[in-house]
Write a structure and sequence with these properties.
- Residues 295-517 form the PPM-type phosphatase domain.
- InterPro entries: Bact_Sigma-Reg (IPR052016), GAF (IPR003018), GAF-like_dom_sf (IPR029016), PPM-type-like_dom_sf (IPR036457), PPM-type_phosphatase-like_dom (IPR001932).
- Residues 127-274 form the GAF domain.
- The chain is of the alpha+beta class.
- The chain is 33% helix and 27% strand.
- It contains 15 helices and 25 strands.
- A hairpin with a 4-residue loop joins strand 9 (217-226) and strand 10 (231-240).
- Helix 4 (96-122) runs antiparallel to helix 5 (128-142), helix 4 (96-122) packs parallel to helix 7 and helix 5 (128-142) packs antiparallel against helix 7.
- The radius of gyration is 43 Å and the shape is elongated.
Length: 551
């Protein structure tokens, strides 16, 4: 049988902290060294109610079988076990390491969740102001009491955005000379490594940085926002009162700053690309049509890409130049769609403008343009094109001299609804060294219209099967139904019919240009003559004389 001395030795040698207590008067009979080391000041012989561990005293008084307690920076856990009718024991365990690991794991999960949310929100938009706003909002939500983002100076000015708790986001500009007022800001905007917050004196922060409403600043942190090969800006964080930035805070802020900087750089690059695109589009979009005397002009353009709004189809109008009183018109189609086609479209339009300055006629324009494209030394997409001159003729009529380079022939809509084809023919532009051009002349009586269009109109696929082309016959019937309508109304009606035919499907670029002779009032309204009878009614029966090829 084990002796009391042996049992005492085993009790003292146990690694787990233990207290042996009397069930009669709750006296601490024994406390092994592990228990005394865990709870300094604990000694056997005294009542449990006087133990230097308040959580133990409270649990014993309440008759609880366990307790948890933060004691002298340690996290302790206690369990009571009855041994016999006269004795019971308290087992004490130190769970500080487990608690610290749990806290660290939860903190890491919170940091990971914050960075994941930041990445999602920062990448949700390429709008620079929205990314700036998101940056300061995330910073105030998770990192500091107030945040400011300062952009690199441009033209001696820096843009900034600021967020204070309970206040709306503020924006403004700052003179470059004032950047040095904030310690570490100039270095951060130059892309130098972040300065530890303990080196920055919050008292040096200027009044314009954070207003007095924020309260006394306890800590200041200035972090670069790294961009694409150059800084995207700087992030300034402030904590009020006695709160400071720890090393973990600075490390998390640097990771956040790298993501915010990348988002700002992407948004800035997108803004620059949009600015360039808008400049280029301004010269590639269809021109405003001039006011003309004796006839009206109407245009319609629909690019295959709604994003770019430019493509391979175009129309152009040049007013009278020099000694010429004619108006020049052109409508063309560069093979393909998108930016590549738009680039060649711009070249073609610039060439036509230059030829107009030297008063070249339609045939000459096509031949020179073909020569310019074929002799460029590069593989070019081909172009189909109709070029014409519009002039006023006698008795309110309008004459069109048209030349075509592989383009669908223009259509003429008479006042009685008859649709005629202008027999202008020619080879593709930019394919063969020499081009063949067979021009034609068309005359319009008042109220009659000539339509120039690209093949995206007739080749639009849709209808009941979704694959049937709109076709020339359907176009002619639709155009015939527009007799007597203004040019702009006619083009809008055709555009709507094709849109309905597509049922929302994709289509090629579509360009249309209409020339319509202005309608003259009846003779009865102009004085004399027989009402409702016009000399132009006779000419409608002689279409073969008014639309004819030229030798």
């Amino acid at each position: 049988m084990a002796t009391p001395a042996l049992l005492r030795a085993v009790f003292d040698a146990a690694a787990e902290a233990m207290l042996l207590c009397s069930a009669e008067d709750d006296t601490v009979l024994l406390a092994n060294p592990a228990a005394i080391a865990l709870v300094p000041g604990l000694a056997p012989g005294g009542p449990l109610a006087e133990a230097p561990l308040p959580a133990l005293v409270t649990a014993a008084a309440a008759g609880d079988d366990s307790f948890r307690s933060d004691h002298h920076h340690r996290f302790l856990y206690g369990m009571r076990r009855d041994l016999d009718a006269a004795h019971y024991a308290w087992y004490l365990r130190d769970h500080t390491d487990e608690r610290d690991r749990t806290v660290a794991l939860e903190a890491e999960r919170a940091r990971a969740a914050f960075l994941a949310d930041a990445g999602r929100r920062l990448s949700a938009s390429l709008h620079l102001r929205l990314v700036l706003r998101t940056t300061v909002e995330l910073a105030v939500e998770h990192l500091a009491d107030a945040a400011v983002v300062v952009l690199p100076p441009a033209k001696r000015q820096s843009g900034w955005i600021r967020l204070l708790p309970g206040h709306p986001v503020e924006e403004g500009t700052l003179a470059e000379r004032n950047l040095a007022d904030v310690p570490g800001l100039v270095e951060a905007l130059d892309g130098f490594p972040p300065i530890p917050s303990r080196w920055l004196d919050p008292a040096q922060a200027p009044g314009w940085l954070f207003p007095a409403a924020l309260g006394p600043i306890g800590a200041l942190l200035v972090i670069p926002l790294p961009g694409n090969a150059e800084p995207a800006g700087a992030l300034i964080l402030a904590r009020t009162g006695t709160r400071t930035f720890q090393e973990d805070d600075e490390a998390l802020t640097r990771v956040f700053a790298s993501r915010a900087g990348a988002a700002l750089a992407a948004a800035g690059l997108y803004r620059d690309q949009v600015d360039v695109t808008e400049v280029l589009q301004a010269d590639l979009l269809p021109p405003e049509l001039p006011e003309t005397e004796g006839f009206e002009l109407a245009g319609s353009y629909q690019a295959a890409s709604d994003v770019l709004r430019i493509g391979g189809d175009f129309y152009e109008v040049f007013g009278p130049s020099g000694a010429s009183t004619d108006t020049m018109i052109a409508l063309g189609d560069v093979c393909g769609t998108g930016p590549e086609a738009a680039v060649l479209t711009g070249k073609v339009r610039q060439t036509l403008r230059a030829l107009r300055v030297v008063q070249a006629g339609p045939e000459t324009m096509l031949r020179v343009l073909n020569q310019a494209l074929t002799e460029s030394g590069r593989s070019q997409r081909f172009v189909t094109l109709v070029v014409g001159s519009v002039s006023r003729a006698e008795q309110g009529r309008v004459r069109l001299e048209l030349a075509s380079g592989g383009h669908p022939p223009p259509l003429v809509l008479r006042t009685d609804g008859t649709v005629e084809e202008v027999p202008a023919r020619g080879t593709l532009i930019g394919v063969l060294p020499k081009t063949t051009v067979h021009p034609a002349t068309a005359e319009l009586a008042p109220g009659e219209l000539c339509l120039l269009y690209s093949d995206g109109l007739t080749e639009a696929r849709g209808g009941p099967t979704g694959a049937e082309q709109f076709g020339e016959d359907r176009l002619r019937r639709a155009l015939a139904d527009c007799a007597g309508l203004p040019g702009a109304v006619t083009l809008e009606r055709l555009r709507q019919l094709v849109s309905d035919w597509l049922h929302g499907g994709a289509s090629d670029d579509i360009a249309m240009l209409a020339v319509r002779a202005r309608t003259r009032p009846p003779l009865s309204l102009r004085g004399g003559g027989v009402p409702n009878q016009s000399p132009y009614l006779m000419t409608n029966r002689r279409a073969d004389r008014r639309v004819r090829p030229r030798a």
